[in-house]
Amino acid sequence: MTILRSTRISVRFWPSIAATRPFEIDSAAQGREALELVQRSGREGRPYALAFVDIRMPPGWGGIETIERLWGEDPDLQIVICSAYSDHSHPEIVARLGTSDRLFILKKPFETDEIKQMADALTRRWSLEREVSRIRSIQQRALFHDNPSMLTMVDTDGAIIEANYRTAQMLGYRVNELIGTSVSVLIAAQHQDAARQFFEACIREPDTPHHWQGCKVDKAGQPVWVRETAHLTKDIDGRDVILVSSEDITELQSLSAHLTRNANQDTVTGLLNRDAFLAHLNRLRQTKGEKPSEHTFCYLDVDAFKLINETCGHIAGDDLLRQFGTFLKQQVRTTDVVGRLGGDEFGIMMHDCPLDKGRRIVNALRKAIKDFRFIWKDERYLVTVSSGLVPLLGTENTTINVLVAAEAACHAASQQGRNGLHIFHNTDTQLAARKKEMHRATEISQAIHDDRLRLYYQPILPLVHHATRGAHYEILLRLEDEEGNIVTPGSFLPAAERYNLSVDIDRWVIRDREEDDSGVCGKRIGT
Questions:
Q1: What CA–CA distance (Å, rounded) separates 477 from 331?
Q2: pLDDT, tens digit, for every residue of 412-445?
Q3: Contact, 255 vs 274, CB < 8 A?
Q4: With a threshold of 0.70, does the pTM exceed it?
Q5: Rounded to an integer, what distance in angstroms lies between the CA atom of residue 496 and that of residue 354?
Q6: Rounded CA gap, 9 and 17, in Å?
Q7: What is the pLDDT of residues 104-122, one digit of tens each?
Q8: Burial 259-274, CB ≥16 within 10 A → b, else e
Q9: In the 3-class helix/strand/coil scheme, how is 52-114 assigned residue by residue?
């Protein structure tokens, strides 16, 4: 077989052709030898343009197998089969090699001029295609580098083949510094696994665009948040590459993080707010493992807050809360979570902490609080707290019940005096009554919301008959529970007074009377 390059360097065969055509011609007696020539020329960057292959070859590979092997090495190589129809039919050749404009069949016998013309036309065509490919490559590179998006080409092993100027600029590198670098070097540690799965999916499903959002790091180690789209494609040399388009969303991520912090953070102390703290408590309570973990919840009430807030003003009160919140975080373990639950109320969630250990931690905290002083306008104020402790194991399995028990224990501690501590136990009758009262307060609030308060009336009659005109009635309040049972005032009014719900009840009564034009006041109670 004969193989031609499009640029003449030396001539060993067909001198009559080489005298008038810019060809370099090599020949091979067998298919394996031809493959070695094509491989070597590829390594040297001097590819062949055209190969004339005899369908009949010496012992070894046949002509068709030789063509298959050559195309496996260089799919752009033009092939001309020199054959007589008696060797292989055209359908047989097509069945093996397919229909391609890289393949021509030249029937024997043929003339020298015919060979010259075909060699000239096909090598010129090959050269023109290479030039077009080169120009297209230049244009594509220009579009690639001038693109305002961050574009990166990564090989299937994760090495960066090409990166445009925008990518280099955003990451603080020069383009040549990125070439050959593993893409994993640019991914933040916490997102390595997700990024690896992203690239693996691109290789596994080449026909599908894939999306990923995560954090990269620039040359200075600063985070750069990106949203990326990638898919598997071919580069100009026919290699599989992953083309990655990245959008810089660092500013958007910063804004999102800010909004999340505002949603979860107490604006005065910077600690978790009540909703975020209780959500954390709820997740912790529901966490299940092979060995159940025991946690302890501490509810704290700052005894001095109301005094300082009223005597020094709200600014001083806020400053006290801010300083005390910082103080709490400094005193607890790094694994513990601190939050502000209300006006002067704080919570500490002690992870993997049995009740006895929690008591020791809180006792140490109480001792440290004795040395804590709040300074406002050169005045020093002593600060004490009341503390209630509740184990998460052994309590009723709801977050609200844990909170109610802790608040009840904290209230019991405040009854003992300043800086008191009370530990919740299911058998604690005082806390049980307090807990029941809290439940009743919740029920009252819900009944007001659901319009389940009821008014009754009974006539007021004199013991001695007189001529006073008009009727007089006494209006009585009742509560209808969720089962439809009527609850008397003695069962719920004490809880309403303790939890400042009396005003809400009064408003409901006034509103109900204003809206009732019938002149009838509820149900009549017999005298």
A1: 49
A2: 888 777 788 988 876 666 656 666 777 788 888 8
A3: no
A4: no
A5: 35
A6: 14
A7: 888 777 788 888 888 888 8
A8: eeeeebbbebbebbbe
A9: EEECCCCCCCCHHHHHHHHHHHCCCCEEEEEECCCCCCHHHHHHHHCCCCCEEEEECCCCHHH
